[in-house]
Amino acid sequence: MQIESQNNFSEWLCGLPKAELHLHIDGSLQAHRLLSLAKKNGIALPYSTQQQVESAYHFENLQSFLDLYYLGASVLIDESDFYHLMMDYLLKCKEQNIVHTEIMVEPQTYAPNGVSFATMMRGFSKAIEQAQQEWGQSVALILSFLRHLDEDQCLETLEEARAFRESFVAIGLASAEQDNPPIKFERLYREAHKQGYRATAHAGEEGPASFIWDCLKILNVERIDHGVRCAEDPSLVDYLVAQQVALTVCPLSNTKLCVFDEMDQHNVLDLLNKGLLVTINSDDPAYFDGYLNENFLALRKHLSLTKEQALRLVKNSFKASFLSDDAKAGFLQELSQTADAP
Q1: Which of 114, 170, 184, 189 could form a disulfide with 219 if both were Cys (CB 3.0 to 4.6 A apart)?
Q2: What pTM was computed for the model?
């Protein structure tokens, strides 16, 4: 009966139109694609089979993951590589009924390998345009900066992005929180706001709850990526509820990177029940054992996620998006016509 219930939930969930707001495109690089691109581009890797790659997906912390993440990104060299990277993920969106996705793109990851901003964007744009034409996929890009680099480097990347300004809806801040507090990027965010970018930032994953406050008060972000450590500060939780600041939570990522030891310890449903605008996302799905639907199913299995809770989380994903109000309303209407939660 439990298996049947899980199967019924999975079928119902897959039928819901959903949005994903926290996805690093490099983190969707599947093992088979990693190996094929490494071979094509003559990149030496310490792995020769898909099984060897996947066996490396056991991380002690965020940094151990980032080391493998940047190694994987090194196989991306020419326009076709970026096309395939993006198209592989967008095909997953089609498969999982992710009708809108907001994808973090990090040009600073590729620059050390001699990859130009233009090469990256030509490949991504070709895949996005094809997905839009073939099945109506909705996509927004977030220009994401690496916080372990210095602010001047980030400002240079922001300047380089001017030529592609219409391709990006927002900026973000990713990579290791340790030793890289939000205040380090105050000038970057001030300049991005002047240029009309909307704003998000990673905070409260490995960093403390105070980093969430700093992102809100110093960087003036609209939503927080991860944010699960807000629970350490009740006044922050109250603020997030009152202001309906969205958190883009990534359950499988949080357990793989030891933010929580086990999924049954995760606090996302506690936060939801307190009235926070939490959403579910996959972060780096190729490395963390699952895309968006698998994150919902993990919550169903380990935290007894109900259909009513799942539906609230999916609604939140559209409400928290950077879409226009009209586009949000259209997707929410589509969702209400599809869902049949008890």
Answers
A1: 189
A2: 0.95
